[in-house]
């Protein structure tokens, strides 16, 4: 096939008709952007469709005179923000609700007689504790630990004792305990705290799971209360859990409805249009300029980075969802702390991640009397990002501090263009040119 001028490529692509698209068409020029590129398209609020930066400039005049007010925020950025907020709120909220629901469920369990326990069942038994082997008569005790402001009590996870009712007895292990309600009598070793313990011969109610052990059945205790008392429960858990889950639901719903309505409105205008592939020779690199910067922008590498970032995201979400299950918390509050800590770790990883994937996508830059030029080796990038920023458009340049690692062009229309990867000589040329422009603006010659 002979080389076709780019205008013919469009008509050639008409033959592809209306197929299921992975990417998205620009509503004006009809060039098709891939799945990885489409989130960089601009949402025009006035036209209610997605366009490439080229058409945002030519067709939409960068906001139809209303500038930033007509530019919809990027769904990718919004998606990360939703993930960032919900990564903390959803697991913490769900855990708080679970924390409340579990004791409620345990309190509703009927008491089972010990001779009728079946393996694997979660049961509630009531009887007399037996710790006749223990020298001090303690069935379930603990020890005092020094803390910064006094002492705190730590229950003994390795405690073993048994519980007996009229029908039989069963051995109890405390390793998986979740809630221990304080009994009446102080432990013999609680010298500083006066903390109570459960003694041989006391009545108690235990909720736990029945498992088959080497010497018969064992009850893995989850909760214990003195006598026939119910397990304490704090309504703060359900209230705060409900609030967090409601807010997250509203945020996710709002985000999803914006995604869906944008997609619907865009498809209504551009869905039936024939697509065209982006010609490789579009927007050639302007000659006669001194280009600098070492942006990695070729498609294969950016796909690798995006692929790696997707895998990284999946691992992070996995840790967020399954992380709390790996721990066996010993108190309701501990159980809340786990998702909080994991949520914070997740969010810090997310930030690190975004910084990491942003870094390689820098443009090559050059400076002329006209303005600052950007060039990307990837043709799609050249359509999706600014190719030139003319001097009169710039309000100020944020040169950051120190070695000026952080650069941002503050535009008159309110936009901000980050040019972090700006290398030399473009960096010093921009600085020199900008000083000249500031001077001439002061004297009113421009
Ligand atoms: Zn376009
Ligand atoms: Zn528009």
Query: For the largest beta sheet, what order do the strands appear in spatially?
Result: 6-10-11-15-14
- Second CATH tier, the architecture of the domain at 109-233: Beta Barrel
Write down the CATH class of the domain at 109-233: Mainly Beta
What name is given to the CATH topology of the domain at 109-233?
Answer: OB fold (Dihydrolipoamide Acetyltransferase, E2P)
- Contiguous low-pLDDT stretches (5 residues minimum) are 1-18
Count of extended strands: 21
Q: What is the CATH H-level superfamily of the domain at 109-233?
A: Nucleic acid-binding proteins
The share of residues in extended strands comes to: 15-25%
Residue share in helix: 25-40%
Overall mean pLDDT:
83
What keyword list fits this structure?
single chain; 446 residues; alpha+beta; OB fold (Dihydrolipoamide Acetyltransferase, E2P); 5-stranded mixed β-barrel; 3-stranded antiparallel beta sheet; 9 helices; binds zinc ion
How do the helices and strands line up, and which of them pair or pack?
Blueprint: H1 6-13, E1 24-25, E2 32-33, E3 42-44, E4 49-51, H2 53-58, H3 61-64, E5 71-72, H4 75-108, E6 122-130, E7 138-140, E8 142-147, E9 150-155, E10 160-165, E11 168-173, E12 179-180, E13 198-199, E14 203-213, E15 216-226, H5 235-270, H6 299-326, H7 332-358, E16 364-367, E17 371-375, H8 379-384, E18 388-390, E19 394-398, E20 408-411, E21 416-418, H9 426-443
Parallel strand pairs: 11-15, 12-15
Antiparallel strand pairs: 1-2, 3-4, 3-5, 6-10, 6-14, 7-13, 8-9, 10-11, 14-15, 16-17, 17-18, 19-20, 20-21
Helix pairs in contact: 4-5, 4-7, 6-7
């Amino acid at each position: 096939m002979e080389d076709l001028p780019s205008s013919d490529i469009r008509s050639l692509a008409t033959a592809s008709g209306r197929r299921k698209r992975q990417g998205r068409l620009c509503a004006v020029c009809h060039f098709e952007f891939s799945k990885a590129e489409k989130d960089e398209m601009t949402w025009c609020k006035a036209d209610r469709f997605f366009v490439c930066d080229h058409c945002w400039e030519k067709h939409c005049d960068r906001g139809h005179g209303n500038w930033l007010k007509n530019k919809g925020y990027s769904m990718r950025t919004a998606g990360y923000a939703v993930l960032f907020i919900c990564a903390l709120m959803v697991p913490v909220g769900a855990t708080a609700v679970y924390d409340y629901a579990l004791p409620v469920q345990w309190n509703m369990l009927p008491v089972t007689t010990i001779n009728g326990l079946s393996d694997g069942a979660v049961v509630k038994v009531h009887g007399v504790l037996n710790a006749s082997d223990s020298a001090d008569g303690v069935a379930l005790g603990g020890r005092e630990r020094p803390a910064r402001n006094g002492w705190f009590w730590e229950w003994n996870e390795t405690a073993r004792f048994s519980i007996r009712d009229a029908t039989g007895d069963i051995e109890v292990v405390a390793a998986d305990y979740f809630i221990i309600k304080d009994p009446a009598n102080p432990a013999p070793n609680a010298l500083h705290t006066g903390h109570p313990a459960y003694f041989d011969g006391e009545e108690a109610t235990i909720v736990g799971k029945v498992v088959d052990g080497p010497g018969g059945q064992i009850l893995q205790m989850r909760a214990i209360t003195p006598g026939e008392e119910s397990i304490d429960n704090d309504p703060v858990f359900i209230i705060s859990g409900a609030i967090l889950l409601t807010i997250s639901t509203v945020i996710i719903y709002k985000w999803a409805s914006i995604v869906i309505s944008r997609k619907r409105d865009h498809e209504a205008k551009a869905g039936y249009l024939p697509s065209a592939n982006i010609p490789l020779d579009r927007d050639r690199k302007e000659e006669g300029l001194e280009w600098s910067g070492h942006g990695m922008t070729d498609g294969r590498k950016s796909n690798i980075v995006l692929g790696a970032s997707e895998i990284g995201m999946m691992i992070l979400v996995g840790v967020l969802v399954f992380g709390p299950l790996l721990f066996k918390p010993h108190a309701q509050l501990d159980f809340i702390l786990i998702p909080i800590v994991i949520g914070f770790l997740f969010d810090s990883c997310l930030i690190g991640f975004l910084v990491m994937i942003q870094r390689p996508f820098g443009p090559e830059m050059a400076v002329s009397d006209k303005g600052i030029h950007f060039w990307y080796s990837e043709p799609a990038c050249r359509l999706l990002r600014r190719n030139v920023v003319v001097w009169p458009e710039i309000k100020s340049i944020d040169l950051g501090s120190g070695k000026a690692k952080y650069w941002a062009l503050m535009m008159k229309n309110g936009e901000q263009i980050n040019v972090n990867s700006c290398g030399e000589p473009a960096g010093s040329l921009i600085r020199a040119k900008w000083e000249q422009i500031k001077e001439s603006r002061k004297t009113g010659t421009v």
